[in-house]
Write a structure and sequence with these properties.
By secondary structure, the chain is α+β, with helices and mostly antiparallel strands. The protein contains 18 helices and 29 strands. Helix 16 links the parallel strand 28 and strand 29. Helix 9 packs parallel to helix 17, helix 12 runs parallel beside helix 13 and helix 16 crosses helix 17.
Length: 742
């Protein structure tokens, strides 16, 4: 069952419209509706707020501001992870960034709440805000650590000496813009009070974090918060933690003793959820004439909110990728009065590889060397910074397989040399690397007396296929068909996990379910061994096979349902778990990653500089596949996101107010069907026994890693124009295009 490309088990619910998302639960009855009012300045203080007209508007039941909001908990930085901390709102008159909530209007309908919100008059005393990254980059400071607790800076050998002595040098600056997750489902929450408890239906990637954060904010026992998040319409990092709509809904529901529903508009999401920080990345490569790197440095400066520090691990990308004896990486943060930075799909690797893999392409061009061969020549045998072996590294195989399948030998060796009519045609490639993480996760598997299984965990399915892969793992572990398994996800009453994020969700939850099934098998076999009524009595449990609903040892067999019913008429359960990777020796003794190689072909209109992706291929090494169908979907989705990072996605800040100017999907561009023609993902057979007992690793974010750089390098190969300020847009490319022959 594991490794089969079965269809999504939740598919019928979704296509029938019966998979309830956060805004769609009606168990609590008719709710009231909340609408958030955001600040119209980026820095300053509220000196007056008039809510009288709003309070008298039709249907309005409450207007909450900092003047009447309940007291809340504070962000406790002793809690190690941001997403479990309190997230208070409406706590005072100070405005920290544009769009910050200054009021919540609750009314009987959404339209009434929205209309009344327009009637609130707020008077501000504006302050002097810092909004422009380039103007304040010199104010950058050194954070203690970066995301995931990684070291801020690293140094191996003597970079300055190694770089100075190199025969060929690349020293370039690459910049990346603010980017947003933009899942289809907006951030939304419905809170229903029940006596002293709160029932919270929220779009959340980590249920345990949501429960803890709400409880810490409201200063109540977490056991009184019951979180439900059975279906999530995409997250990509934006729903790892809860946000103001959830806290405001909870506060209002408690005050009014009535269910309250709050959803952000798409424009509010741009201001209230957080984003990938803009970055300035200096990449220095020193190599010999044969292409072997002597020195590599990756220095990153990015924005942070002054009150909620976030340091994306962008330079960490370079720490395990290529061999070089002299190495240097660093991270610096520039405080700006903008929303906080946050995890956006493949934090660190996506922007970091966009820069490093562009620099490697520049080195290949300078050397006159095939970019694939350059990367193969710099393949390390040990992790070049940690000095430990790789658990399972097949990057070279990805490169060779990808080059063969793509027809890389037909690549134009000279930039701007291939034309088809008015189109300039180019090929590009880049590699992918993504660290494999493991976090704590627990799952309960229960066998009913009829031989069916129920799997329970607070793990979430954010559209990636969790329901399906856990069905496969539990069916395989107990020898059942998929239709004899029921998966219950996204409930805080279930065993806790780190949910969906960081590409750890599938491997963590599947390993926990696998171990729970093993514990159940052991228990049932021990009971059968000593049971005079069992056909398996006295037989060696080590020879047992669970298959087709039966348990067989040699020539003897017994239905699984009879074993359960005889000893456990009310059913029997067992739990399995994974631990934090810091507690697992393999994560100390080995460098554990996933890998890939991207290849892209583009056409560039020589008159207009329009870029058209023609085809794209990714070849990946991810250990064991749990489901090829859902894996392919994940990888292709990531590759398409990389196209957006290279060519389209850019949030623009108004330097006067700190507002995002293009805060809707008409102006913040993401790839659509017409932008994406032929995209294919291929996964090599594999099994990484150092990652976990299943040999499987996370794939959700690998597809985006390096894919943008492959597209950018193809644009250079087509035009001879190197754009280092992403995304690559018409005005950056057009002035350098070669003249067409008349």
């Amino acid at each position: 069952m594991i490794g089969q490309a079965i269809q999504r088990v939740d598919g019928p619910l979704k296509v029938a419209g019966r998979a309830a998302y956060a805004y769609e639960h009606w168990e609590a009855g008719q709710p009231l509706y909340g609408f958030i009012v955001g600040a119209t300045i980026g820095k300053g203080r509220i000196i007056g707020i008039d809510t009288e007209d709003a309070e008298g508007a039709p249907g309005v039941r409450m207007v909450m501001t900092h003047l009447n909001a309940p007291e809340q908990g504070i962000r406790d930085e002793s809690i190690p992870f941001e997403y479990w901390r309190a997230q208070p709102v409406l706590t005072g008159p100070d405005v920290h960034y544009y769009g910050e909530p200054v009021a919540l209007v609750v009314a009987e309908t959404f339209e009434q709440a929205r209309a009344a919100a327009e009637l609130i008059e707020v008077e501000y005393a504006g302050g002097r805000g810092r909004f422009a990254f380039a103007e304040h980059e010199g104010e950058a400071y050194v954070p203690k650590t970066v995301n995931a607790g990684l070291p801020t800076d690293t140094s191996v050998g003597d970079f300055d000496a190694g770089f100075a002595g190199a025969a060929v040098k690349i020293d370039q600056l690459y910049t990346t813009p603010y980017e947003f997750s933009m899942p289809i489902e907006p951030n939304a929450c419905l809170v229903a009070p029940r006596d002293e408890d709160l029932i919270v239906y929220v779009s959340s990637q980590i249920v345990d974090a949501a429960q803890a954060s709400i409880a810490n904010t409201l200063r109540i026992d977490p056991a009184r918060i019951h979180v439900f998040s059975p279906f999530v319409g995409g997250g990509f990092g934006s729903k790892l933690g809860i946000h103001s709509e959830t806290i405001l809904a909870a506060l209002a529901a408690r005050e009014l003793d009535h269910p309250v529903k709050v959803a952000m508009t798409r424009q509010q999401i741009f201001q209230l959820i957080g984003m990938r920080s803009t970055s300035s990345q200096r990449v220095r490569l020193g190599a010999e004439r044969d292409g072997r790197l002597a020195a590599i440095a990756h220095d990153v400066t990015m924005h942070t909110n002054p009150d909620v520090e976030y340091a994306e691990q962008t330079a960490a990308t370079s720490r395990s990728l290529y061999a070089a004896p002299h190495r240097l990486t660093s991270h610096r943060l520039t405080p700006l009065d903008l929303p906080r930075g946050t995890d956006v799909r493949a934090p660190g690797e996506e922007p970091g590889l966009l820069a490093v893999e562009s620099a490697m392409d520049e080195l290949a061009d300078t050397l006159g060397m095939d970019p694939v061969e350059l990367r193969i020549r710099n393949e390390p045998t040990l992790d070049p910074e940690r000095g430990v072996p790789y658990s399972d590294r097949h990057l070279v195989e990805c490169l060779r397989e990808g080059a063969s399948r793509f027809g890389w030998e037909q690549r134009p060796t000279t930039p701007a040399s291939r034309r088809e009519g008015r189109w300039l045609v180019g090929y590009g490639m880049a590699v992918a690397i993504r660290v494999h993480l493991q976090g704590p996760a627990a799952a309960r598997v229960r066998l009913e007396a009829d031989g069916t299984a129920v799997v329970q965990t607070d793990m979430t399915d954010i559209g990636t296929g969790t329901y399906t892969i856990l069905t496969q793992v539990s069916a395989a572990g107990l020898g059942l068909s998929a239709d004899r398994v029921r998966i219950e996800l996204g409930r805080s009453d279930n065993p806790t996990s780190w949910g969906s994020g960081g590409s750890w969700g599938a491997a963590n939850s599947s390993t926990a379910v696998h171990r729970a099934c093993a514990a159940l098998r052991e228990k049932l076999l021990a009971e059968a061994h000593d049971d005079a009524r069992s056909a398996l009595r006295g037989l060696d449990p080590a020879d047992a096979v669970f298959s087709d609903g039966d348990v067989r040892i040699g020539g003897a067999s017994e239905p699984l349902s009879e074993l359960v019913a005889r000893h456990h008429p009310d059913g029997v359960a067992a739990e399995g778990e994974t631990r934090f990777m810091g507690d697992e020796p393999n994560y100390t003794n080995y460098s554990i990653h996933t890998y890939g190689a991207h290849f892209a072909e583009v056409g560039v209109d020589a008159d207009t500089a329009e870029i058209r992706l023609r085809r794209m291929l990714g070849v990946f090494s991810v250990g064991r596949l749990l489901n090829p169908r859902t894996a392919r979907s994940q990888l292709i989705g990531g590759m398409i996101w990389g196209v957006g990072a290279a060519l389209e996605e850019e949030a623009v800040v108004d330097p006067r107010s700190g507002a995002f100017v293009n805060r809707d999907l008409a102006q913040y561009l993401v790839p659509v069907n017409a932008d994406i023609p032929d995209v294919e993902a291929v996964v090599l057979d594999g099994y990484d026994d150092k990652a976990n007992v299943l040999g499987a690793k996370g794939i959700g974010e690998l597809g985006i890693c390096g894919s943008g750089a492959a597209v950018a390098n193809a644009v250079f190969n087509a035009t001879g124009v190197r754009v280092r300020d992403f995304p690559i847009t018409l005005e950056k490319l057009l002035p350098g295009l070669p003249a067409m022959d008349t």
